[in-house]
Amino acid sequence: MFITIILLTILICLITIYLYKIKSSYDYFVRRNIPGPSPQFFFGHYLTLWNVPFYSRQIQKWTQQYGNIYGIFEGIRPVYVVSDVDFLQEVFVKQFSSFHSRRRPFITRNFKGNRGHLFSAQADQWRRQRHVINPTFSAAKLKMMTPLINQCIESFMNKVNDMNGAEFNIYTLYKRMTMDVICRCAFGIDTDMQNDIDNIYMKKSIACFEIDIEKLFIVKLSNVMPFLIPLLSQIFRFSLLMT
Prior knowledge:
By secondary structure, this protein is mainly alpha-helical. Among the domains are: 2-99, no CATH class; 138-208, no CATH class. It is built from 11 helices and 2 strands, in the order ααααββααααααα. The chain has helices at 2-25, 28-31, 46-50, 55-66, 85-94, 123-133, 139-161, 170-187, 200-208, 217-224, 229-242; strands spanning 69-74, 77-82. It has a two-stranded antiparallel sheet with strand order 1-2. Helix 7 (139-161) runs antiparallel to helix 8. It is globular and about 80 Å long. 8% of the residues are buried. The mean pLDDT is 83. It comes from Adineta steineri. GO terms for molecular function: heme binding; iron ion binding; oxidoreductase activity, acting on paired donors, with incorporation or reduction of molecular oxygen; steroid hydroxylase activity.
């Protein structure tokens, strides 16, 4: 009985400390005099972002309301939302050495060693990968790609002209043009997927993005309770193997 009371007391203390940590974390932007929408306890601004059709539209709405620099919370994690050009230049150019990496997708957050690609790599690994690919995007290399890009745009414009002024969903054409540019410039493959509607590369690409991983319950849980990521990522990988 005595041991049970001690364990319950410890559990209550841990829960209290955890809740206090959550509450105090929401003072992050207040202490720095950074504007932003009021967060909801535990979820931050996720409940709002999960319930809007387009994440970017909500960010745009908040930007119009709070200005070019403001803060939101992903769970209890503070996130700066910046659209000030001078500030971005300071971060990405002048102070580039002080910043690196990007937000890691859920399925790669628990990767170890050299398994991460550029989108999921961190710190020195990211710097090395970025240094390796930088020459690919030099001005000279981009100029060499211009004829290929122009060919893709020409095919796109021909498809638009074929519509003869009728209403159509331009998003479908944009997707095919984008994939056409990527395949030609990055892989040297002329897929002609703008004309070939049954192109296998396009079908496989669409299949990769059919499921929005960020909307899965296990991913949402990891966002609001990041300390569970090691466990949840293992569960997620196991579920993929079983499907």
